[in-house]
Amino acid sequence: MPVVHLPKTFERKSLITIACTGMFCSVAAMSSAADLLFAVPDFRDPPTQRFIETIMSDDALAEAGLKLDVLPYSTLGGPVATVQEALKTEAVALLRTELLAFVARNEEKIPTVEMLSAYEKSFFGVAPDADSQGQRAPLELGATALLGDLGLFGLATWPSSPSSIFARRAPTNLADLQGLKLRTTGNASTEFLEQLGAVPQSLLSSEVFQSLETGVIDGTEVLSLPEGDLRQFYEVSSGGALYTDASARTGFFVIGQTGADALTARQLKTLEGAAQKASLAARETLVETYEETLREAEKYGVQVASFSNVLAEQVSVAEQIAQAYGLSQEEILDLIGDIEIAESGDEAPRGESGLSRNGAGRPAHLFVVTPRNDEADHDVRQRFGYKMDASTPLHCFQLNYTREGSRHFGEPFTGEMAISPDGMTTGNGDCIKRVFSQRHPDQGVTFLIHGFNNSFEDAVNWAVSVTEDLAIEGDVVLWSWPSMGQLSGYVRDRDGVDFNRVYLRSFLATLKLFVDQGQTYDISIIAHSMGGLVAMDALRFLAEPPQLSISNVALVAPDVRKAYFQQTLQLGSNISPIWSVYANSNDVALLASYGVNRSPAIGLGGRFRLMMAGVDTVDVSALDRDVCAVWNIGKARCRNHTHAFDVQPVAVDLADLLKSRKPAAARGLIEKQASEGLTYYEIKP
């Protein structure tokens, strides 16, 4: 493969910003303009062209100092070279799922190949105007997460027109396809049609129409519809059929590790937002194109058909998910419940969605402790990034925010927030003093640890909303480890957990010293998702001599393997009197985690439910079986993964646990006995 020499595309300039919040002003040096190479296919169907035009015209990119330089694959040495070479520099690209699977296969990343291939196949037989996002969510989450295994981060999906086939006659069953000579344009459709019994043909473009007209071939594949003047193909196929699903053509808008490292958190968020808007615009164009195809076909007397109509048994989405995850279809159906048949609004009772509790006992102080890199942005939400720099000190500060009286339970906090006037502190000793010096002797301290796919903005918004909705009493400390805030940053975020460990241990070692000097602390830990791994690190260190006990450990949808959790519990079972795990069998995010790790997390309910002596497992599957949207503007939470913060009966129980310090058996929960004699709990609706 030729070596592609790319131009230098990234340049930084210095900007000084003066920002004021209330009576306080700050001067911040911000990252400046960044030029990113934008690799695009040479052939651009209408949805692809719309995607490119939409993102290139987004004013938010320029405001964030971003500029995209469009270059076709051919300029970079072809599609594969684009993946292997262009994304080693500061670049973004539109890459088809089929191409990504090919690269993964060459790198022998088999789980990634299986997940990407299953995701692409899940579009088979689905009309562009159909809404099947909920059914494909596990595959899309899994495929997006595993892009990180290739060193890529998917910022948006890329919908483009599927290839279609004009056929002079319309087969009515699988037998009618046997021996049918069909001209194909790519490996995917060739393989698919061979499996159906057809005989793929390879012809030059100049020979196609005459061969179809004279009957040398029975049909021909075209890359997209409408594609120039296809009138003659419609005419020669009159009375025949147009199959709109010869091959799925899905993909992702991605950025490489080098490109992501070159951007600030604000720039990456802006780029992701622009890409998701472009994805929606491309989706609209795809539907418009499909509807135009229906009108054209009717005009010429051509039947619009689907290959799925002639298959003896259509492969279900559940089967595709099962194949990708290496599970049986029964296990998948048990995990995802009603995902195949769920309609919009078809969900279990979730309780009242009233105003936030905003309890009178809410904490006097909310602190933030983080080893994230300081990007000196004037907006505290954008202040810290996702870089892992060993020279970064531990930062801590008090976060002041303006309560939103009209905010409803479970809604993200969007109000004003700022670093308190006494500024920011660095270093373990000063951070410990800062966090604990203002604590009332009778008040406890609750540590919140966020999960995977959380930017710093996500983390602080979450911390405020959880603090308010649970009416947490005492002081709250958000420990924000360097998660990238990207779905396909899963593999990278696990490195972030490892990077965080040194800071966490040093912080806790200093805390132990303060305890040795006579200080007493009543500490609870609430950890969500991958934050459960951070909690395991903390608990393992606290178990080391001199041991420091805490009052409560609550793990919400923990993305922690059972063996690792068991080992941690054995090392420090007496660290806390109460260990609680909130689990959900409908957790699509943890199902995606299963695909990445090839083993279930303890946050999954159902047949994977954790049951151990000394651990209160609360299975909330019956209360929450929502199917979340994977891509969305504004990053609304996947509620089946955040049930303890978004489903009121679950949140009420978690709040009761924090306040009363009572085990599940004393909180009025429904006690369930498993076949092996162990107990778990459910919450009354």
UniProtKB/TrEMBL annotation:
It comes from the Bacteria. Keywords: Periplasm, Signal. One of its GO terms (cellular component) is periplasmic space. Signal peptide: none annotated. It is found in: Periplasm. Its main location: periplasm. GO terms for biological process: transmembrane transport. PANTHER family: EXTRACYTOPLASMIC SOLUTE RECEPTOR PROTEIN (PTHR33376:SF5), PTHR33376. This is TRAP-type C4-dicarboxylate transport system, periplasmic component. It comes from Roseovarius mucosus DSM 17069.
